[in-house]
């Protein structure tokens, strides 16, 4: 849905089919569904790299806060984890936009630990660096509700 690789795949375009669906009618658009149902984490692959994004919707970052962006975020977190390795090596990255939090070109793999109904722990392990954890986040959500409702409630509270 989102990526910053320079390989001209679907995820490099703002009108990617997985994000907005078919042109004009927008059927089969997934981003709306991720937002509507308050999906915590969207895991993507088939890019030969690793990239973690800030919580976002429609190219807008919705961090939980400046100090704890993944605690009660107001949009899904997207992670592309396709760095397991292949004979093609890696996909090169383009410029890093404001919505990309971390990128790695190392061969590696991801681990996810579901601690309980509110806490997920994510790690990216580098094979190129002998098992070093190169990325790690805690994703915490106290309530599982549609993100649109959270953003509307926040906007209402800011008006008062």
From TrEMBL:
Listed transmembrane segments: none
Purple acid phosphatase C-terminal domain sequence ranges: 75-136
Gene3D superfamilies found in the cross-reference section: 3.60.21.10
Pfam families reported for this sequence: Metallophos_C
InterPro entries: Metallo-depent_PP-like (IPR029052), PAPs_C (IPR025733)
Protein name: Purple acid phosphatase C-terminal domain-containing protein
